[in-house]
């Protein structure tokens, strides 16, 4: 829904979404280059966090974990040891 002003008079305009089948037909008629651009745009859209604070929260978490490793609060476990433990626990 959008508000449109013409000559000082406000009117509400309801914009209806196009059916997915129509959008799919339009995509199929695009050039390969345009399809690639659209795909990149969609992938970028999905790659963004839903909440703008998510990146900041992950950065704080990574910094906290780095400090714990640096100050010896936690011990890093080599991947081969982790996988061996998992394999052993699955055998039981």
Describe the structure.
This protein has two domains: 19-48; 51-92, no CATH class. It has a two-stranded antiparallel ribbon with strand order 1-2. Helices cover 60% and strands 11% of the residues. With 92 residues, the chain is mainly alpha-helical.
User: What percentage of the residues does DSSP assign to strands (E)?
Assistant: 5-15%
Sketch the major β-sheet: 2 strands, antiparallel
Structural class: mainly alpha
Q: Write down how many β-strands occur, each being a DSSP E stretch of 2 or more residues.
A: 2
Treating each run of at least 4 consecutive H or I residues as one helix, how many helices?
4
Could you estimate the helical fraction of the residues in percent? 55-70%
Structure described in brief:
The protein has two domains: 19-48; 51-92, no CATH class. Helix content is 60%, strand content 11%.
Characteristics:
92 residues; mainly alpha; two-stranded antiparallel sheet
Protein topology:
Elements: E1 2-6, E2 9-13, H1 20-28, H2 32-47, H3 54-70, H4 79-91
Antiparallel strand pairs: 1-2
């Amino acid at each position: 829904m959008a508000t449109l002003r013409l000559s000082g008079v406000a009117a509400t305009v309801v914009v209806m979404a196009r059916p997915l089948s129509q959008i799919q037909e339009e995509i199929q008629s695009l050039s390969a280059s345009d399809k690639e651009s659209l795909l990149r745009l969609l992938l970028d859209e999905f790659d963004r966090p839903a909440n703008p604070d998510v990146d900041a929260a992950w950065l704080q978490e990574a910094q906290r974990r780095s400090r714990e490793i640096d100050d010896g609060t936690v011990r890093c476990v080599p991947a081969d040891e982790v996988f061996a433990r998992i394999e052993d626990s699955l055998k039981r």
